[in-house]
Design goal:
The chain has 398 residues and is α+β, with helices and mostly antiparallel strands. It starts with a helix and ends in a 12-residue tail after the last helix. The strands form 2 sheets. It has a 5-stranded antiparallel sheet. Strands 1-2 form a two-stranded antiparallel sheet. It has helices at 2-14, 33-42, 72-85, 89-96, 103-111, 133-141, 144-156, 158-168, 172-183, 194-204, 209-226, 248-254, 269-282, 315-319, 352-358, 364-381, 383-386; strands spanning 192-193, 234-235, 292-297, 313-314, 323-325, 333-340, 345-350. Helices cover 46% and strands 7% of the residues. Mean pLDDT is 85; it is low at 1-15, 22-42, 119-123 and 387-398. β6 (333-340) and β7 form a beta hairpin. The chain is globular, with a radius of gyration of 23 Å.
Length: 398
Amino acid sequence: MWPLVLMLAMVLAGCQTSLFKNGGQQADSTQNSTDSAQQSSTNPPPSVFNTPKKPVGNYKASKVTGTYAGKKSVNRFIDTMVKKHDFDRRWLNGLFSTVQRQNKSIGLMDRYAPSKKKKNRPADYVGQPGRGSWSRYRRQFINDKNLQRGTEFWLSHKSTLRRVEREYQVPAHVIVGIIGVETRWGRITGDYVVLDTLSTIAFDYPRRSAYFTKELEEFLLMSREEGVDPRTPSGSYAGAMGLGQFMPSSFRKYAVDYSRDGVRDLMNPKDAIASVANYFKAHGWKPGEDVAVRANKSGSAYRKVKWGYSSNYTLRELSRVGVKPRKKIKTNEVSLLRFANYKSDEVWLGLNNFYVITRYNRSSKYAMAVYQLGEQLNKRVRPAKSASRESLLVLGES
């Protein structure tokens, strides 16, 4: 069975496209050990790429025409880019003359916006979870099809995952879990023109205008630094790009050219894998520490206290409301996590690394889905290494 799975994985990897439309990347199972040694010692830090280049694209106009002609917010933004970052005004006028308003992006932003009733609630508020809400959410990501596809992705990029795990001290299964939840390992990266989506939300969606105006600024800087035409990158309805769905600001800070081809391309699995690991490392990942620990519960007092990734309790405090970890843990400060299945609540204790995953997406359900998907894939790909979960970091795997 394994040879067939590996063959399928190789085919899938060979079909991978580029964020910057300059060719697909082959699976790394054919890489040799000398290549990995050279990679780890010479791979430049992201800051090497933050050198301004001449913007790419034959754009030039005396003023903005088209959809955003005469729009004051667009002209103010162009003024800022000229004064702050030394962009050519005529080039920007020509570029923004090509932008098309994405009404679908606006509709999706409204669809996923928090309700007014939740306006003053913390980001990780999960309310009184509906019966079976966690079961339904989990099933979106952890199912037979995804486990098969995740296994294929892991086997196809096994050597990269092994090297990245060793160099960044972030477990392979967490990286694979993130990419799986975000894009199903590259199957749903989005086909929106990033320039159009960011511009639309920045200039036509007041509720999120400030954030997306900043991301549009970061995107133009990213395009100049990477030497790509700003109309080339595609992504989600909100402008997230690549296998790991990085926004432009995260791209500039954390993206890594792990393939050593001179481009940080997050549709390239090597670059995407290393970039996710770099993101987690920068946000305080603790090597060798677990992510979350299942807890036993008694009574219903635990339902009346604050819970979510930002909650903070000592083990003694939790024992008073009937919550105890199922295994010994080294830390004494944890978050209380509650997930509703159809029959009863599932209670977990979140550790530091659980909080780090929520820096990627501020949802306890999201972080738990990443963790559990990765755990299931880990058991499939390296079952012998999954027997003990005391340490999540596996080094020197053959």
